[in-house]
Amino acid sequence: MDKLIKQFDSNNMLSLLLDFPSQCRDAFEIGKGFIFPSNYSYFKKIVFSGMGGSAIGGEIVRSYLLYKINFPIFVIRNYTLPNFVDEETLFFACSYSGNTEETIASFYEAKERKAKIITISSGGELLNLAYREGFPSVKIPSNYPPRQALGYFVFIPLSILQKIESFDNLENDFKETISLLENMREKKLSPKISKGNIALDMAKLIKGKFPVIYSQTDYFDAVCMRWRAQLAENSKTLSSINFFPELNHNEIVGWKFPQRVIKNFLIFLIRDNQELDRIRKRIEVTKEIFLKEGFRFKEIWAEGNSLLARIFSLVYLGDFTSYYLALLNKVDPTPVEPITYLKNRLKEK
């Protein structure tokens, strides 16, 4: 593996993966230092606007807080906003570069609707707009691939929201999460681990196959989104996701054709020891169907006690898996050339 790292990881993504727990600590402290405007204390809904790696943080916040707060949380990945965004909306405009055109367009629309805007970026036009228009902003470190700045887009909003909408045990959940990530890094994920490296083992399973990733809707839908995005951007590998119980009402029937393609599918079942009894039953029966039909599947269990730790145990595993798969595919995990090409073409008049 050392040889592949030296050959293909020319941008040293490995260092960012290894440093991820420290990034999360930094993000949490940045959020603690945020001064919440007094006129922002009243709102009825929370909206995150962002794209790609700048949006997935909002999805994880939504998943974590789903049953912890009394406000609906929405993630908008588009130029335009739903009609419900108004002066009673706390609006996080998230763009790592600060130049994401969809997020900037939504910023202007949120401003017109008199939403309570907070921007999170490393600079760019979004930060300039916040300064010019008088909205609070959080500036985060630069020189990351946006998707590798996940800690900032999760723990800054969580730390900010904790100031005005107290939810139980965030500090303890955060401490457990960081401890768990560090333990996973040292004992299960680092390239120093030759035997028992669970991410490398998963990457070897996936190589040459089409991953299909299933989880329960509650809490772990954002994990599936993260896995799919990381496999695409890091590993240059397509995958598919879906969720229990919905997939039992349609997709489960589709495992017939095209037979030549399906033979190369590999199913990952994301599991949690706190699943609802009916969800657990659905997953077990679905496994029976897969076994009967001869489909390959692997169960991946969340680790940790708190929901935050369980979510991030899966996120970290997926990130490392996508990194190792990139190396096994003999590609550099950092460049995203089609995205760069598309952005350059969009700049043309």
The CATH homologous superfamily of the largest domain is named Glucose-6-phosphate isomerase like protein, domain 1
CATH topology of the largest domain: Rossmann fold
Q: What is the count of helical runs?
A: 14
Q: What is the CATH level 1 assignment of the largest domain? A: Alpha Beta
Number of distinct beta strands? 9
Shape: globular
Biggest β-sheet: strands ordered side by side in the sheet: 2-1-3-4-5
Radius of gyration: 20 Å
Order of helices and strands: HHHEHEEHEHEHHHEHEHEHEHH
Description:
By secondary structure, the protein is an alpha/beta fold. It folds into two domains: 34-167, Glucose-6-phosphate isomerase like protein, domain 1 (Rossmann fold), CATH 3.40.50.10490; 197-328, Rossmann fold, CATH 3.40.50. The chain is 48% helix and 14% strand. The protein contains 14 helices and nine strands. It has helices spanning 2-8, 13-18, 20-32, 56-65, 101-112, 124-133, 150-164, 170-189, 198-206, 221-233, 259-262, 277-293, 307-328, 337-347; strands spanning 45-49, 73-76, 89-94, 116-121, 137-139, 210-216, 240-244, 265-271, 297-301. The strands form two sheets. It has a five-stranded parallel beta sheet, sandwiched between helices. A four-stranded parallel beta sheet has the order 7-6-8-9. Helix 9 (198-206) packs across helix 13. The longest helix has 22 residues, at 307-328. The protein is globular and about 60 Å long. The N and C termini lie far apart (45 Å). The model has no long low-confidence stretch (mean pLDDT 96).
